[in-house]
Write a structure and sequence with these properties.
The complex is a heterodimer. Chain A is mainly β. Chain A has one helix at about 1-15; strands spanning about 15-20, 20-35, 35-40, 45, 50-55, 65-70, 75-80, 85-90, 95-100, 105-110, 115, 120-130, 135-140, 145. Chain A has a 5-stranded mixed barrel. The radius of gyration of chain A is 20 Å and the shape is elongated. In chain B, helix 2 (about 25-40) packs across helix 5 (about 110-135) and helix 21 packs across helix 28. Classes of the chains: A mainly beta, B alpha+beta. Chain A: Keywords: DNA-directed RNA polymerase, Nucleus, Transcription.
Amino acid sequence: MDDFLKRKLHTDVEGTCTGRFGYIINVLTVKEISKGKVLPSIGLAEFTVKYQAIVFKPFKGEVVDGTVTSVNKMGFFAEVGPLQVFVSSHLIPSDMKFNPYVNPPAFSDENNTIEKGSNCRIKIVGTRFDATDIFAIGTIKEDFCGIL
Amino acid sequence: MSQSEYDYPEEGKDISGGEETKLKKRDYDTYVEEEAGEVENEEEEVEEDEEEDEEDEDEEDDDEYEEDGKKRKKRQFIAQDESEDAQDIDYMQSRHLELNRRRDEEEDFDPEALASELKSRHGRKRITRATGTDLPSFAQIPDVHQPNIWVLKCKPGKEKEIVCYFMKKSLENEYSQHPLEILSVSYRESLKGYIYVEAWQLAHVMRAVTNVNNLYGSTTKLVPLNERGQVFDVRKKQVDLIVGGWVRIKKGKFTGDLAQIKAVEESGDSCRVKLIKRPLKDDDGKMPGGKRKKTSYSSSEARRGYIERDIKITNLEMTSPSMDEISQFHAADNDEEVSKTLAETSLPAMVLRTDFEVGEEVETINSPKKSGIIERIEKNIVYFVGASGRQMEEQVTQLQKKFAVGDHVKVLNGKHRNVTGMVVSISGSIVTIVSDSTNENITVFSKDLRKATEVTRSNNAALSKYELYDLVKIDQVAVGVIVHVESGIFRILDQNEKLISLEASQILYKVDSKKQPVTDAKGNPLKTGDFVEEIDGDFREGSLLHLFKHFAFVKNRSGVENGGVFVTKFKSLLNKSTKSGTIAYDKLNPAIAAIMNQRLPPPPPPPTRNSSFGNRGRGRGHFGGGRGRRDDLIDKTVTIIHGPYKGYIGIVKETSDSTARVELHTNSKIINVEKSKLQMRDQNGGSRPVSLDYGGGSSNYGSPAFSGSTWRPDRSSQWSGSRTPAWNSTMSPNPLISDGSRTPAIHLNDGSRTPAIHMNDGSRTPSWDLGSRTPAWGTDGSETPAWDSGSKTPRWGDGSRTPAYSSDYPGSPATDSTTSFTAPTPAPDTPGFIAATPGVNTPSNYTAPTPVANSKARAIFSLNCDTLIEQKLYPL
């Protein structure tokens, strides 16, 4: 029973995202499993499980490293683990120009190119918490930010 | 006889809309004194006065004298021009006499008298002013002790002329035998065809108005006392028109158009505005949003797309245009060079008080920057509190809303109204945001933004019938996903990945795609919301929005094109969802795993299974009616047995879960009928009801291919009997042994459309059948209900309707499957859940009992796992 519940917890919870805690990366320990309670009229059993987990919640001003997943003229998207970060072209140094003609499309200046797969250091400037997802916008216009 | 001859200090104030001329300043002063008596609001008066010179002369002073002299000179001049006019000569003589008389008076000049006279006059004047503003409005209403006002009709458009005529007449007759006895004549510009005459008696009026051209003296009417005040009451519109400000035109050809004020006329009643030429408004769109142009307006180039018009202020309305309107306005320019400074300088002219709200953060436009949170707004003054608690106040026009990069905001006005997004750049009053839903950049004025907490998915709340990312039916065959909503127009990506724009009324209806059980390339179940990736092509990935037939609509979070939505075949998708409701149950529950391992043959290698399962999943094409997933009711001849169409015969054209669209034989009209109201007709002329319970499975009955060997109409007792062999064939432990044996099993599964069954991969299905059916058959004794219960198990939702079925589910944890059949179901609607509980609690159930119980418990349990165990989160 406990086994089942733990497995259920892992399956259900890991990799999900709540606005309150952010992404739940990994359940470390299950602290307590309450007694099951059969819900009237449904027949389901409800267990309250307390657990400790590693979570990832991005905050404004946080500097994160991510991998660029797509580039378009408005900016680029990067993935920081489970988090999707958008870096608008306004928040990319102005000497980096969008070049739609190369494949894959990229932002580039003389030295650096940001294209799909590049690694990037991004400072998060804003976050949006949905019920099941977090979305952030970042900037690479700051010191030490940009391509790694 | 123009006004400029007289330099009255109050003139500017007194004139607000109409014409005003005075005979003499003396008269004017007298009038003012009268006004004081009348307690009329001087400042709001539109009046043209003409008064008779009945008053005594001792009020005159030097200035007036000189003015009169000037006038006389002018008269003289005019008289010279018309020297032949004897009348004029007479007139001039009379004026000379008057002048002489005044000179005489001047000689008798008594400074003291003058001083006292001045004092009394100006003293009273001051009082006049005070009363004009300070007295409560009821005290300003004229009373019976003041002269009456009569209203007369005249030829429309001739009002001014008539008033001028009276003035002339008054001057001419001033010292004649019959001076005019009326006190004043006036008209209102807004009221065409009427003039007002002020006098003490009606007889005076009648005498004055006889033989006046275009004036209809017979229409003379007394203005009732209580209305008299209103005659001269001018509600002056308090419009602060600023050059460069934006107005909307309320009247005429350009109604509703946005215009920019170029200049305000001196009179203050009209202004010159710049408008876009109408046709140009339509073919713009080349200018990027928010671009503004700095070219000088004097250049004909820049003026090309615009027209300038003088428009009355009353026909204008101050407005606060949004960025797209202004960019549209400037789209008539085609100079790419942007001048944001222009945008900034003209912004104050656009900001209205209504743009601000208490609690918002604002900053001043001019440096030094002051910022704070609005505490209250009074008229056009905004009071706000700085971070240090310092109270500040500022004109609305000097403020703008303050945002920071990363703020989550909502657009309040304009094309992008209600869009939410995050601020990515701020340049003065121009803010660029990234839309939450489409990831597009939107440029708007900061005044049109407000900090938002919620995320708006839909662009237009009013059209909430359809929302962004809804799956909608476009026509009989096509469906699509709404990928963009813009002012009532939905852009829809259809199943062929074609983008079409439709209005709400053109969309047939919203499709619910959730029911369809499908599997991905590897046979794993797919459901909406799952995270999927393509196994070929572009390897696009995203979350599954909708499934329709063999199409899958997938939304990629970072996609920009079509709002990130793309269409693909679901068979080329791979479910990558970590948190899928579709779990491998054997892994989850050790009890089940034990059973599985015991019973199940090893699953065939995936590729084989893919194909075979795919075929199975797609339909009974192999062996039966060959209609795939289609409801076999379609194309059947049915009789309607209830409702207004009772007795009609028709052919089923389309079906949904509960209704069918039937084309009537009689007039080939297609009507919607509930399936329960239909009766199937077969070749033999027999009929049987179409039952909802069978759902897709009803095809088993209807399909001749199937029934050809087994089913005989009208004799339900024989259905099962004739089927028994078929059932038996499914009992083969290994579904792969023969096609013949496997097929019906699959068929059943398919017919019953159970998600639960589909969740098990293909290989398990037969074993489920084999486990469950046979004993059930035997134990129940009565064949028909047993059959029902067997076939319905997966359709747990409907199952409660069949007594035999509901009785299958134990109300309490079942220790023995056999008893479980007899135990009544306390909650027949959700038998699955109830059965699941014991499953969880007493896994031993699964290992011990008869196959019937096992199979059922498993099917039920899988449902349970799918959706239902709730897990609570607690703060760490």
